[in-house]
Amino acid sequence: MSPANGISGIDRGYIIPIGGAEEKLHNPEILDRFVDVCGGKQSRIGIIPTASELEDTGRNYEKLFRKLGVKHAKVLSFITREDCQSGPDIGYIEKCDGVFMTGGNQLRLSTTLGGTTVAQLIRRRNAVGMHVAGTSAGAAFMPEHMIAGGSEGSTPSPDMVTMAPGLGLTNACIIDQHFRQRDRIGRLLTALAYNPFAIGIGLDEDTAAFIRAGDQLEVVGSGGITVIDPTDLGYSSMDRARRGEPVSLIGVKLHILVSGGRYDIAARKAFAE
Amino acid sequence: MSPANGISGIDRGYIIPIGGAEEKLHNPEILDRFVDVCGGKQSRIGIIPTASELEDTGRNYEKLFRKLGVKHAKVLSFITREDCQSGPDIGYIEKCDGVFMTGGNQLRLSTTLGGTTVAQLIRRRNAVGMHVAGTSAGAAFMPEHMIAGGSEGSTPSPDMVTMAPGLGLTNACIIDQHFRQRDRIGRLLTALAYNPFAIGIGLDEDTAAFIRAGDQLEVVGSGGITVIDPTDLGYSSMDRARRGEPVSLIGVKLHILVSGGRYDIAARKAFAE
């Protein structure tokens, strides 16, 4: 785990978490932009449908990418841990320009891919330029520390969030999705309050964070991204509050960014455009 | 977060998680060995009492280390986040041979030290040779993924364990303590089942894992260490089980090691002596 080491002179690939429910028919801005980043119509895109329980989720994205003009889009059959250790589709990741992880349940991704050849390979290839996008559960799974579940509501409280190790593409931020639609600021604040080292990224539906090498984030899509920066957190009662009690946090910085907005995760600075 | 980068030619310092309740008076084998590793009586040891709510926890360890012959043992006053960002005791870590974190509540450690100068400095200094020991809560806090709390019992079940980001000295293992005494195998299995990438280390009381550079573990003390290796996990129902339901796991490897036993975390191999 942890992001794989890069190679000097080669840029890391993009990390592109999407808040779920991205537009697919009229003006699919996020998916279009992902295809552009991967190199356009000639690019090779692998689709990981593992999070979903629906049989046609992967095939639907395959059709969608083909409709957007992508010649080589392929569903990768990573259903069991064995598939992810030695299955025939592993080799495809070696030659992909981009990988797309669908929605579903992020714990299915972590229990199936965690610790396998596929997880290692995605980290290694991302470190040398392969782009990785994920929507909903696929977005939640991306960071080192993953939000596996939790309750709705805006006030943080102990045990409001279930955390688990994620894929480990980045350890600079913790990601939550369907953010405004499911009132998740409380659980993201809770995750950050446990250990205020990371930046919180709350993604609304149909909204993506395009994070390029050097931890430079740009907002794409119709909703907003809530950025939570605990750098100056002066006081927290997280260690004393009991289950169900509200937690006091003093000095958290918050930004709401919309389409075209940018955030420098490394320097912790926001820009409206 | 994540272990700091090492420097070629310089060994990383030991990481020494202790299961709590280590012997302090008659034959304090673990503390003696820690002092030896740090360089003996001339060594400089910093004590971090942040996990504890009792005022004299730090001073008691200071006396204890002095009784063991250590000339320079000092309690570091890291009570608030401000202390950990710019307090007068930060400089002491620059010149320590070893740091010792006391027991208490690991969430107090992560909420107070997380993301601060002190946390960064401990990681950086450990990467170039400073040794870090921690008992009970101090042990739980050490890895990238920390067990913050959970329920007793031997069968894994969703939500049986609360995880949070830890100090990040290692991402090769997840650590639990007071292991046999508080029946914690179920919650450690749960933590591993979320994402089976790491090795689980369950430490009995008065038992320590001396982990030297290269992830080589040796058991010291009167109890046992339970090592859980999910490398060959073939099946897990973690993604489907509901709160309170037991989780099925097939193919987990388990070792019980006692004093003198060794484990190569990198190669995932156990040796009885």
Q: What can you tell me about this protein's structure?
A:
The structure is a homodimer of 273-residue chains. Chain A is α/β, with parallel strands linked by helices and 273 residues long. Chain A has a single domain (15-256), classed as Class I glutamine amidotransferase (GATase) domain (Rossmann fold, 3-Layer(aba) Sandwich). In chain A, 24% of the residues lie in helices and 28% in strands. Chain A has eight helices and 17 strands. In chain A, the strands form four sheets. In chain A, strands 3-2-4-5-1-10-11-16-17 form a nine-stranded mixed beta sheet, with helices on both faces. In chain A, strand 10 (207-212) and strand 11 (216-221) form a beta hairpin. Chain A starts with 14 loop residues before the first strand and ends with a strand. The interface between A and B is large, with 42 and 42 residues.
Show the helix and strand layout.
2 copies of one chain form a homodimer.
Chain A: E1 15-18, H1 29-38, E2 44-48, H2 57-67, E3 72-75, H3 81-86, H4 90-95, E4 98-101, H5 106-113, H6 117-127, E5 131-135, H7 137-140, E6 145-150, E7 161-165, E8 173-176, H8 185-194, E9 199-203, E10 207-212, E11 216-221, E12 224-229, E13 235-236, E14 249-250, E15 253-258, E16 262-264, E17 269-271
Parallel strand pairs in A: 1-5, 2-3, 2-4, 4-5, 8-9
Antiparallel strand pairs in A: 1-10, 6-7, 9-12, 10-11, 11-16, 12-15, 13-14, 16-17
